[in-house]
Write a structure and sequence with these properties.
Layout (H helix, E strand, L loop, with lengths): L13 H7 L2 H26 L18 H13 L19 E5 L34 E5 L9 H7 L4 E6 L1 H15 L7 E4 L4 E6 L4 E7 L5 E2 L13 E3 L4 H4 L7 E4 L11 E4 L11 E3 L1 H19 L6 E5 L38 H11 L6 E4 L2 H5 L5 E3 L3 E2 L2 E2 L2 H4 L2 H4 L1 E5 L4 H12 L1
Parallel strand pairs: 3-6, 3-9, 8-10, 9-12, 12-13
Antiparallel strand pairs: 1-2, 4-5, 5-6, 7-8, 10-11, 14-17, 15-16
Organism: Citrullus colocynthis (colocynth)
Protein name: Trichome birefringence-like N-terminal domain-containing protein
Family: Belongs to the PC-esterase family. TBL subfamily.
């Protein structure tokens, strides 16, 4: 207080000193008030700063600095979750790769294969006779963060006026159908539509002027098996130098989600061709899968770098979806692939033969050299634990449901590549939603 109120001079009369004393409490109050306001203002600035040490993370906190701040946070959160960037998922600080599946009976899927009219029969396991339902109640919990729950309303608001397109094979189509089913239930019947095509299928949320699309390109690059599909992998030929036939459909898309893996894993060498098929299919060369995969992905990467404006379009890449066709991988000596499995693998070190680390590293190396930022939806490890969630014998083949005889022979007929819906692809979309 000595800086604000000077000490009385010896020359000053006693009555003057007496007159100053009554002002001391008033000045003290004024000083404290200014100090409090300054501190409060500084704290507010710090709290809302993106670099603040108080910035809340996705990881749960054990305590909050004060009840007042906690109340303020809740008020801000309730106003508009779309503009509250303090609660965005931060992939730089919280990884979803390491974690565990936790059984949660209270967790209900946002849809069923009975309620969502847009699911293919191939992934509608309950409709196809699957009785057990535990596979729908496992929740992925990362070790060092909390993965935000999928919120259909927020997802649609984020997509307002935009195009979201999934590009890839039937597994990517499953992710697309999952996303559509996770949002369509809250849209009135007359405000939504779905148009299916040979290559391009489009779900439209009319009120939001948004589309959620799927484009069929199992290799991303052009092949003679894009449509119609050639069943014999030995007859397939890839144009590893061109995505032109497909990429004309990828332009002017706001969010692109790519994937390609399973179709490359045929066990045979990849026949690769330069130039158009019209010039003759005999000019191909055969390459080992990793080499052909590298060439094909470089072609895709060059297109992205040359044609995508990162200020306008966001690019994602879903990592490989693991297959579970060898029950020996998880110690089931007399097992029939994924048939009759009802629980996830609990061994955190598990990595099955259906996930090729070499192929995964190819994607990583190419993406990290690209000019346009590409965000990985890293679903491989968490999906590798889910031997229980494939469509198995509760599926169709050739457009027809498996017969009783085929179901009795799971070793030859169980589908341990595709996933039941609702199911694991919902978690993939939960991760995608966290990044939007």
């Amino acid at each position: 207080m000595s800086l604000l109120v000077p000490s009385p001079s010896p020359l000053m009369a006693k009555p003057s000193i007496a007159r100053l004393k009554p002002h001391l409490p008033f000045l003290t109050v004024v000083f404290c008030a200014f100090a409090f306001l300054a501190l409060f203002y500084t704290e507010r600035i710090t709290f809302f700063s993106s670099t603040s040490i108080f910035k809340p993370k996705s990881c749960p906190r054990k305590s909050t600095p004060s009840k007042t701040r906690e109340k303020g946070v809740e008020e801000e959160r309730s106003r508009d979750p779309l503009t509250d960037d303090r609660f965005e998922f931060d992939p730089e600080e919280c990884s979803v790769v390491k974690g565990k599946w936790v059984f949660n009976r209270s967790m209900k899927p946002l849809y069923t294969d009975q309620s969502c009219p847009y699911l293919d029969r191939q992934v509608s396991c309950v409709k196809n006779g699957r009785v057990d339902s535990d596979y729908r109640h496992w929740e992925w919990q990362p070790d060092d963060c909390t993965l935000p729950r999928f919120n259909a309303e927020i997802a649609l608001k984020k997509l307002r006026g935009k195009r979201l397109m999934f590009v890839g094979d039937s597994l990517q189509r499953g992710q697309w159908q999952s996303f559509v089913c996770m949002v369509e239930w809250m849209i009135p019947e007359d405000k939504k539509s779905l148009k299916r095509g040979r290559f391009l299928s489009v779900f439209t949320a009319k009120e939001y002027k948004a589309t959620i699309e799927f484009y069929w390109a199992p290799f991303l690059v052009h092949s003679n098996s894009d449509n119609p599909i050639i069943g014999d992998p030995k007859q397939r030929i890839l144009r590893v130098d061109s995505v032109a036939n497909h990429s004309k459909h990828w332009t002017n898309v706001d969010i692109l989600v790519f994937n390609t893996y399973v179709w490359w894993m045929s066990g045979v060498k990849i026949k690769s061709l330069w130039g158009s098929f019209e010039n003759g299919e005999e000019g191909y060369e055969e390459f080992d899968t990793p080499i052909a995969y590298t060439m094909g992905l470089k072609t895709w990467a060059n297109w992205v770098d040359s044609n995508v404006n990162p200020n306008m379009t966001r690019v994602f890449f879903t990592t490989m979806s693991p297959t579970h066709t060898r029950s020996m991988d998880w110690g089931r000596v007399n097992g029939s692939k994924c048939f009759n499995e009802t629980k996830p693998i609990r061994n955190r070190k598990f990595w099955g033969s259906g996930s090729d680390k070499g192929m995964m590293s190819v994607v990583s190396k190419i993406v990290h050299k690209m000019k346009v930022p590409v965000t990985f939806i890293n679903i491989t490890q968490l999906s590798d634990y889910r031997i229980d969630a494939h469509s198995s014998v509760f599926t169709e083949t050739g457009g027809k449901l498996l017969t009783a005889e085929q179901k009795a022979d799971p070793l030859h007929h169980a589908d341990c590549i595709h996933w039941c819906l609702p199911g694991v692809p919902d978690t993939w979309n939960q991760i995608l939603f966290a990044h939007l």
